[in-house]
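chain and backbone:
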Amino acid sequence: MTVVLALVLALLIGVVAGLRALTPPAVVAWGGALGWIDLDGTWAQFLTNPITLAVLTVLLVVELVTDQLPSTPPRTVTVQFAARLFTGAFAGAVLVTGALAAVKTGTIISGIGAGVIGAVLGTMGGYRARKALVERNGGKDLPVALVEDVLAVLGGFVVVFLASL
């Protein structure tokens, strides 16, 4: 895989972070556990540990449930936005590390940058898209949120799988 393609995938996993903050860490962990990305012997190898994998999976499911609650703040508030930037950066770095055989520090930093940019795009774009779709749907948020959940989880797995090609 080329560095450019790995960085595009890091950007896309960042977009997923903008939709659902905890999905990218879970899907890159699963990608490592399934052998889609090679994390063995890297700084990110801990993600393939069954305990880490279980914790990240539970956190992903909890996020999917809590997103449906009316008390959940919008993704654009400072804490939510910062979490998306962090997880996008983290997952971007992991994805670049696992997708490229010879990873250099500069490439990991570029993966972090791509993940952050993707997270900004996903957060702002996802917020605006969801708001517009809810308005068109007569104010019904649940169907839109559920579709967004599916897009985030499936999209995250597709991005990580593409890193294996």
